[in-house]
Amino acid sequence: MGDDLIHDSGNTQTQTQNSQVEWSQTNTPSFIPNIWGRLYLTKVSSSGKYCWKYTNTQQPEYYDLINPEFTLGRTLTCTFVVKKDIIKENIIKNVSKQHFIIKRDLSETLSPAIITDLSHNGTFINGVKIGKGNSRVLDDNDEIAITHQLVKIFLFKDLLKNEQDKVPKEISQKYYISRILGQGACGIVKLVYNKTACTKHAMKVIKKSRLTNGQLNHLNNPAKIMNEINIMKALRHPCIISTEEVFDSCDAVYIVLELMQGGELFDRITKLGKLPERLTKFLFRQMVLAVKYLHSQGITHRDLKPENVLLESKEEETIVKITDFGLSKFVGEDSFMKTMCGTPLYLAPEVLRGNGLNCYGPEVDVWSLGVILFVCLVGYLPFSSDYKEISLRDQILSGKYRFSHSHWQHVSLQAKLLMKKMLTVRVERRITLEQILNHAWMQDVDIIIRTERLLSQEALKEKVYLTQSSTNSDEENINIDNVTVLRLVATGKRALSDSYNSCEPIPKKLRVDHHPQIDNVNDTSSTNSCCSHD
């Protein structure tokens, strides 16, 4: 690219001074500007291939980008005004008053520069037309052309870029790698931007372990990993986080997921202290539908907890989406079990009793949902190592949960009964997902209608999206009934927030219920007591 820059026979110091005078001048000379990018002028050519004129006017080699916006066009309000003394006349007549704008959110760490085409005659990146009103992420060493793909005007240098080289090239070509969102035993999660659609996504990076307890990890088996990838991408449900893409490299698996605007259910509970019972019912119904769908596809989640339940928006009534399902397929069964058993607050007793030998069934998800229901309704944990009377392991194995009458007195009897049926130690007596949906507490017609309306709108929105995309023309038809709305795969349609967290090995703190008068956990007449349901 060095040959494409203006080479002035003049003094280099003069060029730098001119650049700073024209583009970086401030009223406080001691101020050191934060330069986030540079636009290098492409070389002058007499062949007419390039846009710059031969001129005696001293031109800087590059322009520093300091402000969050840079505009180019004929109007005098633009940052860079196209003038006939530096640009060829036959080009100027095709330049719009505002031809393009480059924006960068300087308040967001490692956010990309985004260029938007405002012109009638086109703005081109590396020879590809953006299109009026369209945007794309501007990457390091991108060439910007105006009015025609051959009229190259700038070479963009990204001075904040530092993550692109840390992923395989096939990923960096499609996604701009931004900041870290979360990190846990199951991998690291980064915020990424689709360069063409300018949409935000979460990318989970799972490093491959060559050996697990002396045995080869199946992540090194391409056939097996592709099978798991296809399963994850085929899942279609409005309450399941969609897997956009999966990239497999020799040392890691990169899973690109949709990014949720509403954050985690955990954060919603801690912010409010607890959730109103009707809101709990609205959100919980969606969780049950999501898990029921996973089970129908032969997938047991096994790590359900409020951190793995994400909300689509900040609104009170929003779509719930389950994430981090099937991670054991990517991190290895042994590593996955160690992660889960390290924080067993939501684990079913049969998982603990089996010591990670996988001698349990999908009923474990019902137990975990019961713990989530408990936390939503009263805002504290039913089992905790902070309850010193019995060890956490024994609390779960015996089903002795902390029951505070003062917290539960305003909860309906039917909600209490459902919770008890879910936190039943004996698997054969534990309520099933189908029975949960048919339980009296769940038979709220208004909640059912509002839930199905929301899920139907989501399905319809994605159907409209897919009919506009030729790449997804072979997708299955949407099947909507009053219980489950199957979801078509979304592909990069949401520009959502960064509130995403990965499989976290150390549990976030939920309130545990303490009472200074309680010394004996068997004292059922006290305000707080431990109850069991076998």
What does this structure look like?
- There is one protein chain.
- The protein is of the alpha+beta class and 534 residues long.
- It folds into 3 domains: 161 residues, Tumour Suppressor Smad4 (Sandwich); 93 residues, 2-Layer Sandwich (Phosphorylase Kinase, domain 1); 253 residues, Transferase(Phosphotransferase) domain 1 (Transferase(Phosphotransferase), domain 1).
- The chain has 15 helices and 23 strands.
- The longest helix has 23 residues.
- The N terminus is likely disordered.
- Keywords: ATP-binding, Kinase, Nucleotide-binding, Transferase.
- This is Ovarian-specific serine/threonine-protein kinase Lok.
- GO terms for molecular function: ATP binding; protein kinase activity.
- Pfam families: FHA, Pkinase.
Total beta strands: 23
Tell me the fraction of residues in β-strands, as a range: 15-25%
Q: Examine the coordinates and then state which fold CATH places here, giving the name of the CATH topology of the largest domain.
A: Transferase(Phosphotransferase), domain 1
Can you tell me the CATH superfamily of the largest domain? Transferase(Phosphotransferase) domain 1
> Number of helical segments?
15
Any idea what the CATH architecture of the largest domain is? Orthogonal Bundle
InterPro entries: FHA_dom, Kinase-like_dom_sf, Prot_kinase_dom, Ser/Thr_kinase_AS, SMAD_FHA_dom_sf
GO molecular function: ATP binding; protein kinase activity
Pfam family, one: FHA
Keywords: ATP-binding, Kinase, Nucleotide-binding, Transferase
